[in-house]
């Protein structure tokens, strides 16, 4: 039997990934199990060695460790190296190889909803690993301009230097309304109670040119991104669709088995 896991802080136990992958493993007849593992920030190195010692076949990495695991990889895929974030690990003997399936999973999501970003303006909220993956693929798909609004200016500048895009601030967006046609939230903030000031900021924005809002969070009640999309009468996508597509790409790397995205969505709907 192959063993896989998701590595995070306490959020590992909130993730839908264990239930999702275990359902898909059962559906396609693969002898495998997937478990959540809580790791403290100062234990990333020992956790990576644990993957080797305990014969894990692979792992997912999520917030807040997508960048922190990179120094512990023996090999990085080209995409993970450019993005600067790893969400998928394959163990081959004592070697760990890091990949990023979030980027291509986001591309698959855009294809599913029929949104062509070529020549369009984008606005990204956040500056973590999720933001880096989204910005990487939007650049690759030839988006016209990508504005990045993050809390930490140095992290935003790091993205601009390494991947592309232009830095912006909430204050600037208040003064100069965004003309973006696609808006992507990569922060953990989706409900008013998560951050009342940020919620109030979003409420003030017209987003008059926007045609698609994507929130990488999923299953959130009172989601103000969804409410904003409804007000604008435009399409809204929450994080379940990107999760399904990213999981499909990860499964291909782990098992070389390509399962249709609908199977992942069906499994997610039952969780």
From TrEMBL:
Gene Ontology CC annotations of this record: cytosol
Pathway info: Metabolic intermediate biosynthesis; chorismate biosynthesis; chorismate from D-erythrose 4-phosphate and phosphoenolpyruvate: step 4/7
UniProt keyword terms in alphabetical order: Amino-acid biosynthesis, Aromatic amino acid biosynthesis, NADP, Oxidoreductase
Pfam family, any one: Shikimate_DH
A GO BP annotation: shikimate metabolic process
EC number: 1.1.1.25
Catalytic reaction list: shikimate + NADP(+) = 3-dehydroshikimate + NADPH + H(+)
Protein name per the record: shikimate dehydrogenase (NADP(+))
Domain Shikimate dehydrogenase substrate binding N-terminal: residue ranges: 14-89
Domain of life, per lineage: Bacteria
Organism name: Desulfocicer vacuolatum DSM 3385
PANTHER family: BIFUNCTIONAL 3-DEHYDROQUINATE DEHYDRATASE_SHIKIMATE DEHYDROGENASE, CHLOROPLASTIC (PTHR21089:SF1), SHIKIMATE DEHYDROGENASE (PTHR21089)
Domain Quinate/shikimate 5-dehydrogenase/glutamyl-tRNA reductase: from-to ranges: 116-196
Gene Ontology MF terms in the entry: NADP binding; shikimate 3-dehydrogenase (NADP+) activity
């Amino acid at each position: 039997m192959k063993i896989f896991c998701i590595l995070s802080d306490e959020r590992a136990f909130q993730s839908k990934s264990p239930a999702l992958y275990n359902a898909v493993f059962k559906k396609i007849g693969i002898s495998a199990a997937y478990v959540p593992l809580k790791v403290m920030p100062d234990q990333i190195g020992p956790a990576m060695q644990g993957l080797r010692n305990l014969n894990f076949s692979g792992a997912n990495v999520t917030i807040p460790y997508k960048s922190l695991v990179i120094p512990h990889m023996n090999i990085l895929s080209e995409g993970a190296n450019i993005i600067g974030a790893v969400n998928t690990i394959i163990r081959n003997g004592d070697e760990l190889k890091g990949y990023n399936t979030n980027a291509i999973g986001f591309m698959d999501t855009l294809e599913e909803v029929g949104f062509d970003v070529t020549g369009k303006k984008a606005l990204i909220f956040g500056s973590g690993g999720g933001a880096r993956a989204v910005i990487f693929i939007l650049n690759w798909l030839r988006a016209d301009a990508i504005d990045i609004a993050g809390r930490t200016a140095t992290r935003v500048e790091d993205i601009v230097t390494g991947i592309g895009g232009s830095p912006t601030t909430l204050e600037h967006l208040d003064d100069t309304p965004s003309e973006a046609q696609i808006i992507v939230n990569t922060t953990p903030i989706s409900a008013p109670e998560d951050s009342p000031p940020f919620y109030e900021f979003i409420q003030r924005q017209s987003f008059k040119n926007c045609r698609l809002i994507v929130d990488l969070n999923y299953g959130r009640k009172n989601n103000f991104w969804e409410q904003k999309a409804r007000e604008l009468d435009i399409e809204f996508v929450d994080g379940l669709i990107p999760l399904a597509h990213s999981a499909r790409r990860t499964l291909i790397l782990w098992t070389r088995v390509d399962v249709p995205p609908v199977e992942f969505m069906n499994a997610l709907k039952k969780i």
